[in-house]
Amino acid sequence: MTDPADIPTDATELTPECLTAVLRDAGRDVVVESVAATPIGSGQMAGSFRLDLTYRGATELPPRMVAKLATGPKAQREFGSGAFRNEVRFYRNLASTVRVPVPRCHASAVSESGSEFLLLLDDLAPAEQGDQIAGCTVAQARAVAVAAAGLHGPRWSDETLLHEPGLALPTDADRELMESVLAPMTSSFRDRFADRLTAPESALLDWLEATAGEWLVAPIEHFALLHGDLRVDNVMFGPDDTATVIDWQTITPGQPLRDIAFLLSTSLTIEDRRAAEQGLLADYHAALLEHGVTGYALEDCRRDYATSLIQAPLIIVFGCGAAQPTERGDRMFLTMLARSAAAVHDLLPDALA
């Protein structure tokens, strides 16, 4: 299914006929007889719906799935098209090559433009989505960091990763493009939250604007596949705090510690991060070694973590600019910014001087 007219952009279009077609296109010999869709989550770019399904005859497919699709006006969907293609690409081509826990994908569809897509995924209930504003526990952060090692380790410095369409290390042209949009986006962020920014947070934005371009193209010794937005809002936690990572729209190759820096500096409270940070890095590093990574010392991991902390304000500014404004979104971005500023102050004190 690649015709935009065949791919739903609204829950009302998730009909038995549509779902039968996409499942059959994925090689599933099945007929969906009925479907009930219930919205779940609060995705910033795409919509997710829990589907209660009945089938004609016996099937191994589950009676409940989650459908993820591009929703909203066409212009909004066009803006997110690259991210939508990324997520479909991850489930189709990359998920089987790494060891990070992800939902099983039963079927997918994407238009040539990327403005329309559909994923049919396992429903992970009773697992619950993390809360970025409240933050996670140290045990939950450890579970996500160890899971991320299962993403990074299997494709550690794997040159074939760069042969995947849409995946390449940043170039000088990427730097120029990023710098051209970063300045106005940072200015817009400042204007939007002018009455709520503290001095350390304002200094963090200054540092971001001054150094992000150079950081983006700085030579790196190691690269892997990154999630790109690894925070607890993008993780489902089981009753025993097991972690399943979702929302694969921002995948990119890069320095692996960017994911870990973003996770720990924005998803833990400042107090918990300060108390547990070094132990969590040691646990992540040990998990990397279990996935076959060699020649990478814990001291290297800690160094790369500190120099990757700029990932947080970068994603915060771009994420805020791309998302539709909401009260929760505003609180989330400001909470993350405050935590990030504290982390940079603690580990890179000269950056905010």
TrEMBL record:
SUPFAM superfamilies: Protein kinase-like (PK-like). PANTHER family: AMINOGLYCOSIDE PHOSPHOTRANSFERASE DOMAIN-CONTAINING PROTEIN (PTHR23020:SF41), UNCHARACTERIZED NUCLEAR HORMONE RECEPTOR-RELATED (PTHR23020). Residues 119-294 form the CHK kinase-like domain. It comes from the Bacteria. InterPro entries: Aminoglycoside_PTrfase, CHK_kinase-like, Kinase-like_dom_sf, Oxido-Kinase-like_Enzymes. Signal peptide: none annotated. Gene3D superfamilies: 3.90.1200.10. SMART domains: CHK (SM00587). This is CHK kinase-like domain-containing protein.
